[in-house]
Amino acid sequence: MKKIVLTGAHGALGTVLRGPLSRMADTLLSTDIAGPPKTLMDNETWVHADLSDYAQIAPLLEGAEMVVHFGAIVDEKPFEELLGPNFVGAYNIWEAAHQHGLRRVVYASSIHAVGLWETNAGIDTEAPQRPDTFYGLAKCFAEDLGRMYWEKRGLEAVCLRILSCTPEPQNARALGTWLSHRDLVQLVTRAIETPQTGFTVAFGVSGNDRAPVSNARVPFLGYRPKDNAENWAPSLLAMARPDPMDPAQACLGGPFASVPLGESGVAGIRAMSTGERDGT
């Protein structure tokens, strides 16, 4: 490809993706409200921009074939704080992609779009949305936006519902929800390289024996995860055992399923295990 745009490029997952994406295009345009990092890839351009400002975002997509949209506030906040970056920002990306004739948006959705589903429900990608927070609601909004832009304007979208993406699984819950960095890169690569996707939802989860969700309906993406959290089971199960009556343990959204609306879910995750980063 001539050009790929990556939003949220200074975030934890955007940082993982910059190198692989730079090798897939002549030019990688990375953008974030933070940064730039100390070093850039040889073919990478960095632009500081606010997702909530269409005038700043739209010009960045000119000449691109695809945009990998990972930019957002990555925690539960009051609705008013999420409105600009997470809701309006998603609209700005899709509208700019349409205006500049892009082929596809690859979007970092989240398990929190379905976070109030029970962990043991065994849902697949056709399960109805059940957001657990305003943050999860923003992911539902962007998914619906993606479906509408595909059906009304022919702009493809692959929405990746990321579970828990960390270098290693951090607690007993992550035995099911973990997405390794290697599998994240593979999943995003498949979302870009698949010839035709239309509107597609896929779960961002590694090949865990205890994975609580299924990608069986989207085999055409060719995503075949390489990693399995079960390798960490002995040490993780030696930690505090989950309480099956606690929504933070019984629902897919983890602590996001139990916090009051507008209050941090990441804080609950940190209480479960130091340093875990859930979703995106």
From TrEMBL:
Pfam families: Epimerase. Keywords: NAD, Oxidoreductase. One of its GO terms (molecular function) is oxidoreductase activity. Residues 4-162 form the NAD-dependent epimerase/dehydratase domain. InterPro entries: Epimerase_deHydtase, NAD(P)-bd_dom_sf. It comes from the Bacteria. Belongs to the NAD(P)-dependent epimerase/dehydratase family. This is NAD dependent epimerase/dehydratase family protein. It comes from Roseisalinus antarcticus.
